[in-house]
Amino acid sequence: MNFVEELTWRGMIQDIMPGTEEQLQKEMTTAYLGIDPTADSLHIGHLVTVMMQKHLQACGYKPIFLIGGATGMIGDPSGKSLERNLLDDATIRHNQEAIKNQLRKIVDFDSDAPNAAEMVNNYDWMKDISFLEFIRDVGKLITVNYMMAKDSVKKRFSGDGEGMSFTEFTYQLVQGYDFMHLYEKKGCRLQVGGSDQWGNITTGTELIRRKLQGEAYGIVCPLIKKSDGIKFGKTEQGNVWLDPVRTSPYRFYQFWVNVSDEDAERYIKIFTMLDKDTIDKLTAQHREAPHARILQKELAKQITTMIHSEQEYNHAVEASMILFGSGTAEALKHLDQATFLDVFDGVPQFEISRDQLRPGIPFGTLCTETTAVFSSKGELRRLIQGGGISLNKVKVKHMDEPVDLSALIADRFLLVQKGKKNYYLIVVN
Length: 429
Prior knowledge:
14% strand, elongated, five-stranded mixed β-sheet, 44% helix, alpha/beta, 15 strands
């Protein structure tokens, strides 16, 4: 595959430096992507550039992931209006290992292939460089005029935010030095990133040209926004994380399956490895029957399986079916606490103690006296006689059915359902 052509039809290139395609055609090129280690998990905002590296490796080139251990201690001004929190080395090392374990699911780090991915940390080479060395050997190569002309710097000086510290101002030199170091030590000729990194990348190529008389290149992808203009990846709960503890596989799956039709057509090109013919066919089928959400379901399947596993994807689909009426009592029993709470987020809740279920309590008493799920026994009796009440997805046949601790889901919950769409959650503490 031609890497540039592949990214182009997928809508993943905003800017590309002249000569990049010729370099890629000439030899097996090494490309690096910088990742900010401010958390011990990536979120889906990172996935666009990570997918660039996945495609790069699939095309036969070698990806390097650079963890910004040193730069994470400084803070990158690109695309931001405030200084970020700075991290200590122990936190950065922990975050680095966690991020690498997530990346392993997406790219090949562990084979003996010549283009197996590598991870490096710029703290390993920056920690031994003194300030005087840096300004003597690197600072003199780039003029202040050149640095001031960068958009990321101009925005901060024009009143967007609280100005910029000297530390952040020098960031582009530090990142540029990373590129120069990898050029010398790893033969790295290409840097990829988001469009906000264009200024930092071009500073790196300029350093390589002035210091080493070498040629280096850059490709950046566009900033991904949702069709309504809101920043991609943000929800009411905040970021959508790759870590299943921060964002459950169910909630992760739900994010993708609920994107708009317009976004699904873009996202399936960016976030999956499906080929053009397959995507074109899926898109045509989707446009014929948009209510079936063919694109959204395939997108959610591909990305949930890649980031979590096929098993977690199947669990997420089962959990979704539970909420929308077609799930079974057996599927309900398989839900863990976190997924259960995600599925029934926003459902009216009633709390009781475990003692209130020992040795058992009639269903009618539980729902009208112990809790106020229903306002009266008369109302509940009529609903039960009409076949409209379920407990844990099993029809309740009479008021006096006993409910005890053995009925609990995930050892904590009872799910009462009225009709197809009305749920009530009894939480047992």
